[in-house]
Amino acid sequence: MKIGGKRRLYMYCWNAMISGLALHGYGQAALRLFDGMKDRHIRPDDITFVALLSACSHAGLVEEDYQIFESTEDFGVLPKMEHYACMVDLLGRVGLLDLAYSFMKAMSFEPGAVLGALLSSCLVHGDAELAETVSKHIIDKAGCLSDGEYMMLSNMFALHGRWKEADNWRRMMKEAGISKVAGCSTIEINGRMYKFLAGDGECG
Q1: Which residues does 130 contact at the CB level (< 8 Å), separation at least 6?
Q2: CA–CA separation, 41 and 30 (whole Å)
Q3: Which residues contact 124 (CB under 8 A, 6 or more apart)?
Q4: What number of H helices and E strands is found in the chain?
Q5: Cα separation of 48 and 18, whole Å?
Q6: pLDDT digits (tens, 9 = 90+) for 86-126
Q7: What are the PPR repeat spans here (predicted)?
Q8: What is the pTM of this model?
């Protein structure tokens, strides 16, 4: 194997280790591994940075995440949708919703799935105003929201006592031809499967 091939294989191994740490929430350990990678003059690629940003996101390391994102330029890596999604996810997780929204607007391409992640954060933190703004962006791009998103928006406005907005979101859901599917559970008794619908007193 040529030297270039060995170096790429070596980089893949480092990426795999960083990704593993990210998956299990070991943000600081992933950053230390990245330092070791640089000490050995192994040039990170876009996958490395996705793993690092994900690690920081799951560990709530806001300052470190910003530093990692900004360092992509030092290694000639052009941030892609995945990199921005990690940043928006972290800022949303810790409740910095306005920063997350500003970060998303600064993207040079369509936000796509990033909008959905930001909307989820708005719903979790109860930011009705930004949730409505983001929802309208999603509707402009995709035509409608999911049934769960419509229901969560309606419920959130209802919790704030804003019944008109709550009714509007339910009406929009109905006009979009979307119905809320009842949740169900299944259990096995004596070799026979039984299904229970949410709110159902019987099984079948």
Answers
A1: 97, 98, 101, 122
A2: 17
A3: 92
A4: 10, 2
A5: 7
A6: 999 899 999 999 999 998 888 887 777 788 888 889 888 98
A7: 10-44, 45-79
A8: 0.73
